[in-house]
Amino acid sequence: MEKWTRIRLAAAAVVLALYGTGAAYFRQHSFPNTKVDGVEASYLTPEEAFQRIRKETAEGAVTVSVKDRQYQLPRAEVLSVAEDAPIRQGFAGQNTLLWPLEFFRSHELSSGKNLSFDRVRAEELLEEQGLFQLDIAPVDAKISDYSPESGFTVLPDEDGWRGGRKEIMDAIQEAAVQDALELDLTERFAVKAERSSEDSVLCQLCAEQNALAHHSYILKLGEEERELDGTILSGWLRETRDGGRGLDAAAITAYADALPDQFDAALKTLGAEQGERYIIDTVLFQHILAAKLGVTLPVPETAAQTRAREKSNEKLLKEAQRKAKRAKTPEEAERILAEAEAELVPEPEMLAVRLSSQEERSAGDADTAQSASGAEQTERYDTICLTDGIYIENVESAEAREERRRKAEKQYGPASRSNALIPDDPEEEAETASPSSAERHILAEEEIYIPVIAADPEFQLGYGLDYIDIDIEKQHVILFENGRKIMESDCVTGTPNRARETHKGVFQINYKQRNRVLRGSQRLYASFVNYWMPFDAGIGLHDATWRGQFGGTIYKSSGSHGCVNLPLSFAKKLYKRVYAGETVYVH
């Protein structure tokens, strides 16, 4: 009995000794399973735990990010723990009397560390890495280049970046003392673009460009095919004065004028089959293409209209300059001139622009009433050979003659397919009868059949379907309409010397005038003419009633002063048919 009592007392003494030793130990050390700020800190004195926290704080770097750029601040150089009092207070709060139970518990302590940030050193490091020199301009959203797959798209805008030195350092210090390892300053100092990808005007322009250019057509003539796709069409896009989009009319014309070379073999095959010379109606092709694209082609300014516009602008500027001279201050004079310049009439924009819905409906209705087949276009003339030996005229029907008269009165030009209205609805189908299927043009979804017409051998490409041909060597004038010789006559041109020769080149009828007295330079002569059609300054076509003969070599010894002299009967009929702006080809 006494033996067991002694054993119990001895065991109790050992337990008490162990308990006391543990209590004494944990008064100076942390409990097992202890972490300070997430750092393993079991069985450590406050000093040891503090050093471990300091070491942990000094490891790694603070990473500052701006977009795709990164700047490193080594923590050992810019951060330090200011004091260990919070750790000591945390350890002092341990209940050492219950230390045996703490082996089965987790202990998460906060050092409450007060980090010290070396701002001067951090600024030096960032200066070396170029952060303060970083200045990124924002990029506005814009329309992409053309892609055959997706057409035009709106490329997203990109924020810029710009920050002041103090503001940048304040943000970094704020994050660093909170023990942050990463700091992204991209959004904080972002500079927004002026135009975003959601901009309604930009999106509308993109849609407009796709409507104009994101197409693909197969051009057909006989067995030959060519592709006209968005890669080509997009190259014709131009900006209008009001910021919209249009297609360069000159580029469209150049493309149409190149079609004869591309389809040369097909044209020859068609001519051999039909026993006629065939040419591509390039003007009609442009109207067909315009209809497919839903655009209206611009009307070129005539020489007379150009002179009138320039004269009006000149008058407006001179008046403004006179007013500016009387202005009381330089500012007022500058304002007067600026206002005058704003009122000047600009030359027409030669751009094909999209039709409004109302215009499309009107054009479609007009076309229904005026569309005519190729057969009708070529059969409306009856050939009559006159017997006076001077000229031949192909006389048209009364209905066609009346239509031409109305056009000429309004200076619209001849009532031919050169200016006929074409369907503006791409879904509608219009066919032109012809000697063979190759001449038909069908406004289908993906195909355009190249329109062709029969042309006389003398007709030359490059001057439109309607033009006046003046051959100086042959002393001959021909009026072509739709590639057909309508009228022709012998003539007398200028004496071939520097002072009196008829200039060669491509011109336009400036205007028409009846009963005009023509006076030479220095008033050396005065001639009355019944029909006056100038095309090269003071040089023009007119009747010459004082002459009894025309043609041959008369011009070499008794030529005009530069004008093209015509028989009265021919001049009268020519005057009725030609219009201001019609091409005159002198060669």
Distance between the termini: 149 Å
Can you give the mean pLDDT?
79
What general outline do the C-alpha atoms trace? elongated
Please summarize the sheet with the most strands: 7 strands, mixed
Low-confidence stretches: 357-397, 407-445
Number of strands: 32
> What's the helical proportion of residues?
25-40%
Strand content: 15-25%
Class inferred from helices and paired strands = alpha+beta
Number of helices: 19
Strand order of the largest sheet: 20-21-26-25-24-32-27
Radius of gyration: 46 Å
Domain L,D-TPase catalytic: 466-587
Biased composition (Basic and acidic residues): 307-333, 398-410
GO biological process, one term: peptidoglycan-protein cross-linking
Protein name: Lipoprotein-anchoring transpeptidase ErfK/SrfK
Please write out the topology.
Layout: H1 2-26, E1 34-36, E2 39-40, H2 46-58, E3 61-66, E4 69-74, H3 75-78, E5 79-81, H4 85-92, E6 107-109, E7 115-117, H5 119-129, E8 142-143, E9 154-155, E10 160-161, H6 165-176, E11 182-184, E12 190-191, H7 200-213, E13 216-221, E14 224-229, H8 230-234, E15 237-239, E16 245-248, H9 249-257, H10 259-262, H11 264-274, E17 278-280, H12 282-293, E18 295-296, H13 303-325, H14 330-343, E19 351-354, H15 357-370, H16 374-379, E20 381-384, E21 391-396, H17 398-409, E22 447-449, E23 452-454, E24 467-471, E25 476-481, E26 484-490, E27 505-508, E28 513-519, E29 526-536, E30 539-543, H18 554-558, E31 564-566, H19 568-577, E32 583-586
Parallel strand pairs: 1-6, 3-11, 13-22, 24-32, 30-31
Antiparallel strand pairs: 1-2, 3-4, 5-7, 8-9, 10-12, 13-14, 15-16, 16-19, 17-23, 18-19, 20-21, 21-26, 24-25, 25-26, 27-32, 28-29, 29-30
Helix pairs in contact: 9-12, 13-14
InterPro entries: LD-transpeptidase, LD_TPept_cat_dom, Transpep_catalytic_dom
Pathway: Cell wall biogenesis; peptidoglycan biosynthesis
Region (Disordered): 304-333, 357-379, 398-438
